[in-house]
Design a protein that fits this description.
The chain has about 350 residues and is α/β, with parallel strands linked by helices. About 50% of the residues lie in helices and about 15% in strands. Strands 1-2-4-3-5-6-7-8 form an 8-stranded mixed β-sheet, with helices on both faces. It starts with a helix and ends in a 10-residue tail after the last helix.
């Protein structure tokens, strides 16, 4: 009898302790969410959009266009990689503005763009970009520049609107077969990892995790603070998760782009694969094999056009610094000018060939 009474007492205390811990965790999570909202509001005041917010039917998207529109030159449109947006094109856009009209933008839910209705596969993103440009009064023809995932997105844009695109520049473009599994039908699923990332983002964890990114002085110091702010936002995590869950569809939509005709195309590739840094021979071999696959994939993209060039190496650059370091971004700008010149039949040669 005494033992039963003691057990009941112990059980009540265990329940109370567990309940108290749960309440403490919920309270901490609530405070973290409130802090994240407060910091987001502060950053919105600190970092106003450099461009304009354009209504695309239900939400507004950020479009940043600079440079005068010229009758004899296309407008250059910049498409960023997976979790990046207009700020990542700082050097390229600044370099090009004196010669062409050049536009960068933020996909829905990234940077200064408001969240949309879940346009997460490549075709939906391309249609949304088309609507943004149209709503903003920007008119074709366009030279599209796509880095990483953006390389796949601009190829899909071309498939949907071929008459509006007169050239492509692809610095380290995404290679669909690298994302697909061996059967080339599906990608590795993003399940608990994506759910965990979404929770951490809502609690503001990424804001502190990402505090140390882009500390190298070669990054564009003018925009690093805003990149750090936006990359940790909950909306950025939600959008990135959406892309990952839809990357299989995006890959197949990209593979539908199997003929670029005589479109001027330049493919660039980074050369810093950190192969020598790998002490483990197996890791080193995997990096070498992946480099060869990606180079082959990049070469195949260039060969889709009778006027395709590349892959042209940008010595010393890695996948990220290719557009974020000024000295490498200058090579991207040079390639853009060459393609713009090709559209005018000026015959300007791109250094490095």
């Amino acid at each position: 009898m005494i033992e039963q009474s003691a057990w009941r007492t112990l059980r009540r205390w265990l329940v109370r302790i567990a309940g108290g811990l749960l309440l403490a965790v919920l309270a901490a999570a609530g405070l973290a969410a409130i802090l994240e909202a407060s910091l987001a509001a502060r950053d919105a005041r600190r970092f106003p959009p450099p461009g304009r917010l354009v209504d695309v039917g239900g939400h507004r998207m950020h479009l940043h266009c600079i440079g005068e529109k010229r009758e004899d030159a296309p407008t250059v449109v910049l498409e960023a990689g997976l979790q990046l947006w207009s700020s990542s094109w700082h050097w390229v856009q600044r370099d090009l503005e004196t010669s062409v009209r050049v536009c960068s933008y933020d996909r829905s839910g990234l940077g200064w763009s408001e969240a949309g209705q879940g346009a997460f596969d490549g075709a939906a993103i391309a249609r949304e970009l088309h609507l943004l440009l149209e709503s903003a009064g920007e008119r074709p023809p366009y030279v599209l520049v796509g880095h990483s995932l953006g390389g796949m997105l601009v190829r899909i844009f071309y498939n949907l609107y071929p008459s509006e695109v007169v050239g492509l520049v692809l610095p380290d473009p995404g290679i669909p077969t690298e994302y697909l599994e061996e059967d080339e039908t599906e990608v590795v699923p993003c399940d608990w990892q994506c759910a965990s990332a979404a929770l951490l983002a809502r609690l503001g964890a990424f804001r502190f995790i990402n505090r140390g990114i882009m500390s190298n002085e070669s990054y564009p110091t003018a925009v690093v603070p805003e990149i750090r702010s936006h990359i940790g936002a909950p909306s950025a995590a939600r959008v990135t998760i959406g892309y990952l869950k839809n990357v299989s569809a995006t890959c197949h939509q990209t593979l539908d782009n199997d003929d670029l005709g005589d479109l001027p195309v330049v493919v660039l590739h980074s050369t810093d694969w950190r192969i020598e840094e790998a002490e483990n021979p197996e890791v080193r071999q995997r990096r070498i094999a992946r480099r060869e696959r990606i180079l082959a994939g990049s070469r195949a993209i260039a060969e889709l056009s009778s006027r395709g060039r590349g892959p042209i190496p940008v010595d010393g650059a890695n996948h990220e610094s290719l557009i974020l370091y000024e000295r490498y971004a200058a090579r991207v700008s040079q390639a853009v000018r060459a393609v713009v010149a090709d559209t005018r039949r000026d015959g300007v040669r791109f250094d490095g060939e």
